[in-house]
Design brief:
With about 180 residues, the protein is of the alpha/beta class. It has seven helices and six strands. It has helices at about 15-25, 40-45, 50-60, 75-85, 100-110, 135-145, 170-180, and strands at about 1-5, 85-90, 115-120, 130, 150-155, 165. Strands 3-2-1-4-5-6 form a six-stranded parallel beta sheet, sandwiched between helices. Helix 4 runs parallel beside helix 7. The protein is globular, with a radius of gyration of 16 Å. It starts with a strand and ends with a helix.
Length: about 180
């Protein structure tokens, strides 16, 4: 099967990455558990808008935040298990400045994949099973791909969505793929 897997919020811990860097640079104590909405980086920081936040993420001349993100526990190992029998199609939305850093991050973290698509319209890439944490992407995938299995990686910033199956950890996702595949 073709497994369409998102990166940030699913494999890469974007929240932990930006919170750790922000606290280190600004002497603050933002907690990961404070991030309970999609745009929390504006309400929890000094940034006035998302443009200002993304400029900070880009990090000027050095590597962007996307180059240094930690992985979620068990994510890479589960992807290796899945890759034995299935195609891994990475479906991620990134700003242009993050493309090179994303490729480097994938290699450095030994993330297995057959295809990489950086797109805002993930539904356009045909897959049998999708895994995402973005409320908007989950809504689009269930609308545009109702005949496919769409999984919501449960995070504080998303809610249950009709047509999407809730996934709480990587073991649960592997088990779901095994059930669908049989």
């Amino acid at each position: 099967m073709r497994l369409g897997i998102d990166l940030d919020g699913v494999v890469a811990d974007f929240t932990k990455g930006w919170v750790m860097r922000y606290n280190a640079e600004h002497g603050t104590n933002v907690a990961e558990s404070d991030v309970t909405s999609w745009g929390a980086m504006i309400t929890l920081t000094h940034f006035e808008d998302m443009g200002q936040f993304w400029r900070w993420v880009a990090n000027g001349e050095g590597p962007s935040l996307f180059r240094t993100l930690p992985t979620y526990p068990g994510a890479v190992e589960a992807m290796h298990r899945l890759h034995h029998d299935h195609e891994i199609v990475i479906l991620t939305t990134k700003p242009d400045f993050a493309i090179a850093d994303t490729n480097e991050w994938l290699a450095e973290n030994d993330v297995p994949y057959d295809e990489l698509h950086i797109t805002d319209e993930k539904w356009r890439i045909p897959c049998d099973v999708y895994l995402d944490d973005s409320p908007d992407q989950i809504a689009e995938l269930t609308l545009e791909r109702p005949d496919r299995v769409v999984c919501r990686y449960v995070r504080p910033w998303n809610r249950s969505h009709a047509g999407a199956r809730d996934i709480h950890d990587w073991d649960e996702f592997v088990a779901l793929v095994d059930r669908v595949w049989c």
